[in-house]
Amino acid sequence: MTTRPDHHLQPTTVDSQDSLRIEVRGDLDYASADLLVAEVTAGLSGQPALTDLHLSCAGLGAVDSMGLSALLMIGRRTTAAGVRLHLDDRPANLNRLLELTGTLEHLTAPSPVGAEETLGTGDSTVQARPTGQDANT
């Protein structure tokens, strides 16, 4: 996928004590997927009390397979950190891609109350929560 200069990914981060909002503008593709993953990773590591990560997708342009891969990686990292992922204001093209690939529910399913699971990870145990939007977003 060729990205026009005016479509380069431009993440903007707005944070509070327990939530992080990243506004995504431009194309999420081969050339920019790592940028978004790095932005999210920095946010997750910089805020240990984080409970919610909101990716505002209203300004999102095209999304290719690497962009989808980045979203799935972000989903794995937020789950591992015990942070709930929200894909807010999804444009139709993103919804369609997620539906076609069978990942819509995986990335956006609401967490049932009390649905936290304990996952064993060798010597330690971590709390894992499903990612996705809740009724408040």
TrEMBL record:
Q: Which Pfam families match?
A: STAS
Region (Disordered) residue spans: 109-137
Task: Kindly give the SUPFAM superfamilies that the UniProt entry links to this protein.
Answer: SpoIIaa-like
UniProt domain STAS: residue ranges: 9-129
Ranges of Polar residues composition bias in the record: 121-137
Report the protein name in the record: STAS domain-containing protein
